[in-house]
Amino acid sequence: MVAPSLKLQDLIEEIRGAKTQAQEREVIQKECAHIRASFRDGDPVHRHRQLAKLLYVHMLGYPAHFGQMECLKLIASSRFTDKRVGYLGAMLLLDERHDAHLLITNSIKNDLSQGIQPVQGLALCTLSTMGSAEMCRDLAPEVEKLLLQPSPYVRKKAILTAVHMIRKVPELSSVFLPPCVHLLHERHHGILLGTITLIMELCERSPAALRHFRKVVPQLVHILRTLVTTGYSTEHSISGVSDPFLQVQILRLLRILGRNHEESSETMNDLLAQVATNTDTSRNAGNAVLFETVLTIMDIHSAAGLRVLAVNILGRFLLNSDRNIRYVALTSLLRLVQSDHSAVQRHRPTVVDCLQETDASLSRRALELSLALVNSSNVRAMMQELQAFLESCPPDLRADCASGILLAAERFAPTKRWHIDTILHVLTTAGTHVRDDAVANLTQLIGGAQELHAYSVHRLYNALAEDISQQPLVQVAAWCIGEYGDLLLEGNCEEIEPLQVDEEEVLALLEKVLQSHMSLPATRGYALTALMKLSTRLQGDNNRIRQVVSIYRSCLDVELQQRAVEYDTLFRKYDHMRAAILEKMPLVERDGPQADEEAKESKEAAQLSEAAPAPTEPQASQLLDLLDLLDGASGDAQHPPPLDPSPGGALVYLLDLPCAPLPPAPIPDLKVFEREGVQLNLSFIRPPENPALLLITITATNSSEGDVTNFICQAAVPKSLQLQLQAPSGNTVPARGGLPITQLFRILNPNKAPLRLKLRLTYNHFHQSVQEIFEVNNLPVESWQ
Amino acid sequence: MIKFFLMVNKQGQTRLSKYYEHVDINKRTLLETEVIKSCLSRSNEQCSFIEYKDFKLIYRQYAALFIVVGVNDTENEMAIYEFIHNFVEVLDEYFSRVSELDVSFFNTVFHSTWQAHSSPYQESIDELPKICSALEPQQACFSPDSSFKGAASTTPIY
User: Which residues have CB under 8 Å from A611's CB, separation 6+?
Assistant: First the structure.
């Protein structure tokens, strides 16, 4: 009576034949009805077929929960075809959230102990896909037994099931830990791969396991070495690289084991160098292995030469034509840039080229990396590139680029004028994407730069005359014109072409801003206030201004209306006070959040320099050997003291550091060195809260005609004092009074011992390399008493 | 860790999907359409790694079929890229010149013997065909009351 049910093939044909989504749904619903009926009738012969169809339908996205009980029945049957589909159904339809899943535990247990490989395989597969915590606990002993079976097929699967079990129930680690070391001696690649994954899971979950497995590092090194040096093996090689997947996994495990552990790292050094140099990089498989090697080198305590090798490999990747490789190179360089800054700087030109990429993910990475690479010596060149990029970049990157440029400009601006120019350029190109405080920052900056008032107001006026749509720009321009309108009208400014600006033109421009529908209410407020200020700055009569102000007295916007009414009253009743009220504004103090940010930045800088003691330590020890330390030979190197362990304490010291303008130092500055126009000055500060601390700032200036490059200053003090050098602001002093280099020394002198200081300078000047060693005489007594 | 493995064609029809973490069924179709949209919008010159929500997507296009693997942050993208190619080569061996049609009709075969979630590189080139072909004779001798008789090694069972 019942029509013969469709085979899976036929169902798929029908679904493919459906022309529209509605048709497909119809076909599927009809079939599901058949399947449900068949399940109700309990037909054992065709059950597997029905379930297979149901699973296909499930994959397409339709609900299939009514098949769950059928899975159980199929698993319990003795036919392999039934079991196969039943287990497949269990993997796809059952999971921890349905209580029914526990019912298959017994069937799995039976199947695992039956000894028929395909069935065991199926059971292990299912267990590893959907095994819940209780199931794992119950079946752990079975799986452990299977780990020791002779057949590699079942062993592989048992190992992977063990991985899943450990993820679900970490306590089972004790069960699976002992066989691991034994399994590493197998030759079968599948078993090795599984074991390594298992070991990685164990190590990630318990530090005790990590220590235990450090013992197998030599074994792993040996396996990898054999892999790399043996020739072509038909079973496992992919484009000339023997089993790249196993190589990558071993490297990853070595990374986990070698992290923060000197001994293991040393064992691996040779091997990593060997892999890095011997791998064939013409195909993707080789590049994948090389990339993993680079990641491992970066994470462990590798030798310096190895790290340089890693950065060079990444640089080579950057030049590769394959975009995938460039992407991974940029991502890894971004991670490296904090720790190996100078090595990454060498590849700066290539990174900047990558900004031109059409691919969105690549250009984003290149942008982040370029921003991280900006420092005081390359800031002008980098800013030019970044500004060019800003003009052409896709809109989603604009905000990041703009804020990155502004931040970098703030940190490294060589001159105020350059800073103002840069911000102006950003505002004209991408004004709508900048952060809200950009306007405030710029006004404050301009206000502070007295000599540049005329220049800024001329530039802003020109920019405004061209385009009044970029709101931040309009706001700043309006403010400036209001403040410095008199300078604008004088018309003479030596830095740009003199432009004769008429009073009427200025007023017309501001009125245009006020009336334009593109202006935000805030912008209008700025414009109105600017107009008002101009009434005192301009020579002509104020009728036009009074007119505008009185028009806005009835404006619908409450804020504008209030301003207009107040200004109008000022005109009418308080005209004598007008000039005083509308005087030039004093410099606004930088408020709270800014100071915190600076304190945070200096704390980060200090922490970085704490990381920097590792490289400065060998320098310091060489220096001390060289200098034959002052009160007798020093056998041991002087270790810079770590910063106060409690971050609160460190912050207290750092907040004493002059971030804002220096309070007058009671100890006079000292000029210690002069040669061919290069001068070195010391200034001293004794913070009152800490009598043992002395802060010395050295300043290197250059009044000669040639640049000073690669400037490095090292210092030594007597043993009873502790010296710490912080990172210098740069290593180049441009000629003719360019931006000086400053560096901070912290000296702790708890015993009030007499201060003696020896300095060693190395730099390049007039194409010669100069080295000077001298002791500082005439140190003021107040610096150590 | 691999989060999911998809084979979707250009029209957005899913040919194979395997999820290694539970995702609600209605969210799955949504995920698949979004993923295929972001893969389709990329040209040939762009790189094969996309960042999507908190996954990384690594995709490869073979004729009209996209194979997309979603991984978390700790994976080596290039090794997964190689793995996708390895997988296609295995399919090629098994089906002797595999096509999208083969994938649509035989996806259950892969499901039942594939345990790739924890160690994605488990199957080397020759293993999967060996396993699949090992299965068929085993079936014949294992279940005396099996309903099919003398199935050829590549005939589907259903």
Answer: A339
How far separated are the first and last CA of chain A, in Å rounded? 110
What pLDDT does A522 receive?
Answer: 85
How many residue pairs bridge chain A and chain B with CB atoms within 8 Å of each other? 175
Q: What are the pLDDT digits (tens) for A241-296?
A: 788 888 888 898 888 888 888 888 888 888 888 888 888 777 888 888 888 888 88
Total residue length of chain B: 158
Q: A422 lies in which domain range?
A: 415-543
> Which CATH number does the domain housing residue B56 bear?
3.30.450.60
Q: What is the pLDDT of residue B122?
A: 46
Which uninterrupted H or E stretch holds A583?
none
For A38, A60, B104, B125, B131, the CA distances from B93, given in Å and listed in that order, are: 37, 26, 17, 8, 12
- Residue A387's nearest CA partner among A358, A359, A408 is A408
- Do A257 and A210 contact (CB within 8 A), yes or no? yes
What's the rounded Cα separation, in Å, for the pair A447 and A439?
Answer: 12
R_g (Cα) of chain B, nearest Å: 17
Determine the residue of chain A that is closest to B26 in CA distance: A61
Domain CATH for A757:
2.60.40.1230
Residue A236 near chain B (CB below 8 Å): yes
Which residue range is the domain that position B7 belongs to? Answer: 2-98
Residue A383: both structure tokens together: 């800013």
Question: Chain A within 8 Å of B93 (Cβ-Cβ)?
Answer: no
Is residue B84 a part of any domain in this protein? yes
Mark yes or no for CB contact A9/B142 under 8 Å.
no
Q: Residue A614 contacts by C-beta under 8 Å, 6 or more apart in sequence? A: none
Please name every residue paired with A733 in a beta bridge, in sequence order, or none if there are none.
Answer: A708
Burial grade of A390 (CB within 10 A; 0-12, 13-18, 19 or more): buried
In a domain, B13, yes or no: yes
Mean pLDDT (chain A, rounded): 79
Which residues of chain B make contact with A252, given a CB cutoff of 8 A? Answer: 76
- Which of A496, A517, A543 represents a domain boundary (last residue)? A543
Nearest chain B residue to A165, by CA: B118
Cα distance between residue A510 and residue A504, in whole Å: 10
Q: CB distance from B81 to chain A under 8 Å? A: yes
Model-wide pTM > 0.80: no
**Mean pLDDT of the region B136-152:** 29
Distance (Å, rounded) from C-alpha B58 to C-alpha B47?
A: 9
Query: CB contact, 8 Å: B148 with chain A?
Result: yes
Is residue A483 in some structural domain?
yes
Domain presence at residue A710: yes
Let me know if residue B143 belongs to a domain: no
Q: Which residue has the tokens 């079968």?
A: A188
Domains of chain A: total: 2
Mean pLDDT across the stretch A338-344? 78
Average pLDDT, stretch A455-476?
A: 81
Q: Is residue A688 part of a domain?
A: yes
Q: pLDDT at position B33, please?
A: 86
End-of-domain residue from the set A543, A562, A593:
A543
Across the beta sheet with A722-725, the strand order is A670-675, A678-685, A693-702, A741-748, A722-725
In a domain, B109, yes or no: no
**By the CB < 8 Å criterion, does A121 face chain B?**
yes
ipTM: 0.72
Q: Is the pLDDT of residue B97 over 80?
A: no
Nearest 5°: phi and psi at A679? -125, 145
Q: Are A641 and A609 in contact (CB under 8 A)?
A: no
Spatial separation of the C-alpha atoms in residues A703 and A721, rounded to whole Å:
34
Residue B118 — pLDDT band, cuts 50, 70, 90? very low
Q: Is the pLDDT of residue A588 over 70?
A: no
Q: Is residue A770 part of a domain?
A: yes
How would you write A87-103 as a 3-class SS string?
HHHHHHHCCCCCHHHHH
- Domain tally, chain B: 1
**How many residues are listed for chain A in this entry?**
785
Q: Which residue do the tokens 């077929």 mark? A: A49
